[in-house]
Amino acid sequence: CKLYFVSSDVILECLGFSWELHRAYLCKSETLSKLFTWAMARANPHDLENKEKTKTRKIKISLEIHDPLITKIAFAVALKNLYSIELDVSMEDVLGVMAAASVLEFPSLFQKCVIMMKNGICSATIYSFYSAGCKFKQELLVNACERWLEVNLVPQLGRQIHLRKLSQELLQKVLRSSRLFTFSEFYLLRTTLFWVFLHLSKRCAFLERETGQSYMSVFQCLRLHGITSSKHLEDLRHINFFPQTWLTRILSNHYHALENGGDMAFQRDFSTQAVRFGLLIKEEPKYCSEIVSLYGFFFQIKAVRHEASSYSFYMQRVKYTDPILSFFTSERSPVSMRQEREVKYEIKAQALIDGKWQEFSTYQLTQKFGITKPSCRSQVS
């Protein structure tokens, strides 16, 4: 086995370091190709006529980089890939390499990084990847990050310190999304409270105070009328976070709804005011359900797995005497004796299929739910 080492013929001055390169490999980078062509054009014509001298002479080029994302390591990885047929980037370096590829105008490496970031979104990377997508105008990456947040804001990010990296603008955008998943409105409220707490690095100030007023618009995105549990309502009062007028309005809405047999007279816009409940389905078990209570009516949300990738979703009304409700009734939950309850609802299912998020929906439906079959069951999604 014989190895041949060819000495470099290009010196790149960048980031306070001299990088030894070979002109034959600069073609992958439009930036370096232009710099090399420009340097050759400025070279001494007599030197270019001397072929032997041209072969041994090293061309010096320089590149200024002011992007803090581009470290020497990231830049070295980008330059290394000029020599590789198979592009090689680690997830640890991908952000800096992407920035370096952008400066170098190295399209194949840049797209490699975009794909890696799109597939590597998690709680630790979500905001840095989203920011990079915005900075480099990569709509697919931005959309992927927003989609991840819509599904994982509450169940994953909401329980981690990485939540504090989320900007207020991005949080508000996700909170307003019609595809936002939450177990209930209270879980969404709790996540938002955690976010404010992490931003302030101390116990949150009351929203009416000067320090809290800038966050008012974030909490106006929440559907606080969907928090009906007496325990959760007590928590709202004890945390001393919301203006008293907000709490009074929430309790007043609940009182009127209970007095009118569950009719939510103050909520007229389904797309922005419907109360949300959700289930998170994993590989096992094949059957999953959750009981929800609203103004004396009880419903069971069900998800059933039929095959490896086939599911059905529906909800059904549960009679107040059902043994499964013993926990709820013991928690001071009101009980309605009405035989029928007209409900406007929509069941949505979101799934990651072959690397792409797909959404299935019954769309908005209005149905009278009885307490016996078949009237107790909704349509199946």
From TrEMBL:
Pfam families: BTB_BTBDG, BTBD16_C. Residues 8-121 form the BTB domain. It comes from the Eukaryota. InterPro entries: BTB/POZ_dom, BTB_BTBDG, BTBD16, BTBD16_C, SKP1/BTB/POZ_sf. This is BTB/POZ domain-containing protein 16. It comes from Ornithorhynchus anatinus.
